[in-house]
Amino acid sequence: MHDIVNRLITIKKEIQSKNSAAEIIAITKTFPIKHILPLINYGHHHFGESKVQEAILKWTDIKKDFSNIKLHMVGKLQTNKVKFAVGLFDYIHSLDNIKLAEKISLEQKKLNKKIKIFIQVNIGDEKQKSGLAPDKANDFLSICTKELDLEIIGLMCLPPYSEDSSQYFKEMKKLLLNTQLSQLSMGMSSDYLKAIDYNSTFVRIGSKIFGERN
Ligand SMILES: *Cc1c(COP(=O)(O)O)cnc(C)c1O
User: Fold this and answer.
1) Of ligand 1's atoms, which has the minimum distance to the CA of residue 50?
2) Measured between alpha carbons, how far is 51 from 54 in angstroms, rounded to an integer?
3) Running DSSP on this structure, what letter comes out for residue 79?
4) What pLDDT does 162 receive?
5) Would the N or C end of the chain have less CB density within 10 A of its end CB?
C-alpha cells in the first residue's frame, strides 16, 4: 500500500490502542491533490486546509466526485472570505470573534447550510495568536448559539510551540466541561497522542502523514 496510507493506518492504530474514537483530520495544506489522492481512494473522509483560496482550487471538483469528504477550515478566517468558506467547508475550527460569527451566520443562511464550528481558544494566552481568551469562551458561545443560530460543536486550540502541550490540553479539557460542548480539536503531528490523553476528538495531522512541508 501507498506510504501515505500506511502512515495514516499506523496513526489510527495508535489512537485506537488508547481506546479513543478520535477522528484524524489529514491536513493537506501546500500538498497538491495528486499527493492526497491515495488517501481519498483509500476512503479517508476528513481533510483540512488553512487557506480558503488554496482550498477552493484544490477541493471544489474533488468534493463533487467524493461526496463523503468532510473538509475542515483550520486556519485563520477573514470575514471577506467567509462567503467562499461557507460554500466549500463542512467544519470551521477558527471562530474567535463576533464579526466573524455574524458573517458566518449570514452566509450560511443564504446557502441554507449549517457549518459545524469550533471556537478557537488562545489557551497559551499568546499575543500573536488567534483565539478567544479562555474566560470569554462561555459568553461568546451563548451569543453564537442563541442569537446567531450557529452550530458550535466544540473548542479548538493551538498550544504554544516548543512547550509541552500537555498542560494546555488539560486546561482545554477542563474548559470543555464548563460548556456542555462535546468536541475538542487539538493535537498535531508532534503531540496528538498527548491530546488523545485529554479527550481530543479531532486530531489535525499534516507532516506525520504527508511529510515535511516546504
Ligand atoms: C498545519 C496545521 C496543522 C498540522 O500540522 P502538522 O504539524 O504538520 O501536523 C494542524 N493545525 C493547524 C491549525 C495547522 O495550520
Assistant:
1) 15
2) 6
3) G
4) 85
5) C
For residue 19, the tally of other CB atoms under 10 A from its CB is 7
Give the torsion through C-alpha atoms of 43, 72, 137, 104, to 10 deg: -130
Q: Is the CB of 207 under 6 A from ligand 1?
A: yes
Report the length, in residues, of the chain: 214
b/e map 163-200, b = 16+ CB within 10 Å: eebeebbebbbebbeeeebebbbbbbbebbbbbbbbbb
Task: Evaluate if residue 1 carries a pLDDT over 90.
Answer: no
For ligand 1, pick from 204, 209, 213, 214 the residue to mutate: most ligand atoms within 8 Å of CB: 204
State the pTM of this model. Answer: 0.97
What's 117-139 look like in SS3? EEEEECCCCCCCCCCECHHHHHH
Residue 3: count other Cβ atoms within 10 Å of its Cβ. 11
Is it the case that residue 51 has pLDDT exceeding 90? yes
Number of the ligand 1 atom closest to the C-alpha atom of 204: 10
Query: Which pLDDT score is estimated for 109?
Result: 97
> Which residue's alpha carbon is nearest to atom 10 within ligand 1?
204
C-alpha cell at 199: 479527550
**Ligand 1 contact, 75 CB (< 6 A):** yes
- Rounded distance, CA 92 to CA 154, Å? 11
